[in-house]
Amino acid sequence: MSDSRECRVAVFSAQKYDRLFLTQAATDSNVQFHFLEPRLEPDTVILAQDATAVCAFVNDRLDAEVLKALKESGIDLVALRCAGFNNVDLQAAEDLGIRVARVPAYSPSAVAEHAVALIMTLNRKTHRAFNRVREGNFLLDGLIGFDLNGGTVGIVGTGRIGRTFGRIMQGFGCEVVGFDPYPDPEVEEMGIEYLPWDAFLSRCDIISLHCPLTPETHAMIDADAIALMKPGVMLINTSRGAIIDTQAVIAGLKSGRISSLGLDVYEQEENLFFKDLSDEVIQDDLFQRLLTFPNVLVTGHQGFLTRQAMEEIARTTVDNLRCLSNDEACLNRLV
Ligand code: NAI
User: Fold this and answer.
1) Would you say 313 and 96 are in contact if contact means Cβ atoms under 8 Å apart?
2) Within 10 Å of residue 283's Cβ, how many Cβ atoms?
3) For the chain, how big is the Rg over CA atoms in Å?
4) Which of 127, 205, 251, 277 could anchor a disulfide with 151, C-beta 3.0 to 4.6 Å?
5) 221 C-alpha vs ligand 1 centroid, how far in Å?
6) Ligand 1 pocket, 187 CB below 6 A?
7) 309 CB near ligand 1 (under 6 Å)
8) pLDDT on residue 1
9) Alpha-carbon span 172 to 118, nearest angstrom
10) Is residue 269 annotated as part of the catalytic site, yes or no?
11) First-to-last CA distance in the chain?
């Protein structure tokens, strides 16, 4: 391993756990991290001026404006410490000669298991039971769930996370079906049948989203899709917020077509998630409306947050930075 060139990295949106895992992974390497709490956006680019590289997360803004400003400060290397890269203008990065790498796979189990946690909580209402019992209320009214065994679970996007999720749900005794424009024979060998979109929507008791956010998947769960879903469907999104049209989903919850909703991601999450806003008035009315439903459970983008996933993200991020700063080939390079 040649660790010749010093790589000074401005880490945006840095949380305590990022400091811990990234610092550990960078021991004995040429990578030096400078941790910054703010999100990367036009007003905060200046914080990276002494760095040679930037390390960014899901809600950091890497559009043409920000990338141009980074390039002007001499930065030509971006290491994403996440899998999704919908927040990066890759064309602009390529045009500017900025290399971008990501962590394509770390622990598919982390996100898949979080999707299962949302299902289990919404179904058996353990969040409500927890509060009731602590208040001495042992009534069971309103806590009725359903057997997962024998139900049909649909996966939108049968990639690494989707198929891991599918395997877990098969373990519960569910029939698992998939929708993906790129069907994979290995997934079919697992006993997961691919269905056309309309048939998929009308067949599933639970639908879980595991596709990337692209122009094709943007708002793919809209009013038309919801109208085709089985009445009483449970909808789970641990992928990216904008895959769902939130307004349409709220209408679906009000009509009862959607019986419960579990979200780990939200379209406008960059204004909310990863911050303590407990002393503030939240301005996002759509988000606040979601929180009024007893059958909606929102977590703040924590699907990735397991020890194993964090170790793997940090290890791969340091490796990406080391390779690229030493002009070595990097398998995880996007442009
Ligand atoms: P992957 O690349 O292994 O799988 C994505 C799958 O989606 C592929 O099979 C692809 O063919 C499919 N797909 C593409 N376009 C589609 C469409 N129009 N309709 C249906 N399927 C489509 O990705 P992986 O690792 O499974 O991650 C999936 C997504 O999970 C990421 O893109 C990211 O947005 C999200 N994610 C969320 C995390 C969290 O903490 N909540 C953490 C990590 C990833």
Assistant:
1) no
2) 11
3) 21
4) 205
5) 15
6) no
7) no
8) 46
9) 15
10) yes
11) 23
**156 contacts: CB under 8 Å, gap ≥ 6:** 162, 178, 179, 180, 200, 207, 208, 209, 210, 211, 220, 243
Q: What is the residue with the minimal CA distance to atom 30 of ligand 1?
A: 239
Say whether pLDDT at 257 is over 50.
Answer: yes
Single pTM value for the model: 0.95
Cα 305 to Cα 301: distance, rounded to the nearest angstrom: 9
Distance CA 61, CA 38 (A): 11
The one catalytic residue among 114, 160, 269, 312? 269
Q: What is the pLDDT of residues 10-32, one digit of tens each?
A: 999 999 999 999 999 999 999 99
Q: Which residues pair with 244 in a beta bridge?
A: 221
How far apart CA 28 and CA 8 sit, in angstroms, is: 14
Question: Where would I find the beta strands (DSSP E) of 173-315?
Answer: 175-179, 193-194, 206-209, 233-237, 258-263, 296-298
Q: Which domains does the chain have, with CATH numbers?
A: 7-106+306-325 (3.40.50.720), 108-298 (3.40.50.720)
Q: What is the largest CA-CA distance in the chain?
A: 66
DSSP 3-state percent helix, strand, coil across the chain (nearest 5): 40, 15, 45
Q: Which residues contact 264 (CB under 8 A, 6 or more apart)?
A: 114, 115, 118, 237, 238, 298, 299, 300, 301, 302, 303
In sequence order, which residues have a C-beta less than 8 Å from that of residue 95 and are 6 or more positions away? none
pLDDT digits (tens, 9 = 90+) for 299-316: 999 999 999 999 999 999
